[in-house]
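In response to reviewer comment 3 from the previous cycle, which asked for concrete evidence that the modeling workflow produces usable outputs, we include below a single protein chain processed end to end. The sequence was submitted unchanged, and the resulting structure tokens are shown without manual editing.
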Amino acid sequence: MGNSIRVLSAVFLNFCVATTASAAVYNMTFTGLWEDAHVASGSLPGSAHFTTLIGATHKAGEPLWAPGELASPGIENVAELGSTFQLASEISALKASGSVKDQISLGGINSFPDSRRREIEVFASHDHVSLISMIAPSPDWFVGVYDVALRDASGWIDSLSIDLHPWDAGTEEGDRFSLSNAASNPHQPIALLQANSFNGSPVIGTLSFDLVAVPLPGAALLFASAFAVMGLVRGKSGAASDSL
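The workflow returned the following structure tokens.
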């Protein structure tokens, strides 16, 4: 009987973790895979790199950027210059309004292949992620993800890996790996990049999220502890009875 209750306690504990935990910790890994074969000229441009990755955890359906939408000034500055100041300001305003929970940033990638990694805390109330990093040098091209869910009907997602393709912010002209081009007038909606500089739309990086820990809610921990204690008590009682 004691073993049965201990098993029931473990099952109950896992259920609580999967379905009721209000926060989770993930390892986020940003990997650059850009290589010569991805480029029409056959070699990467000089000083090829991905700039600082920046974004936020936010509510579902409220991404920092999305295909078919116009880039905000902050997204434009990241895509054209790799500058994060304006977007950080926009994220602060969105945090004040309640649509964003936390800003996320991670160092850029200056050689390929290479990776950067950090832990992030994600809350059930803001369980989606949007991120962006400039493809440099370029007019207004970037890699990133938008409105990615880290939680589904079953609870927190264990592991997720997303291929990163080149995107066009629609704010600056040019189809070569160059900076300071003429502004697009009017600005165009964000779209997958269609430029002769790349061979199609290659996967030039990945962004992955791996679940590290799910803090157990206080009530669930209390009930699980009670089940565990019951299991121990009944286990000892059963052992004593068997020895008589």
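The longest strand covers residues 23-32. We consider this sufficient to address the reviewer's concern, and the full set will be provided in the supplementary archive.
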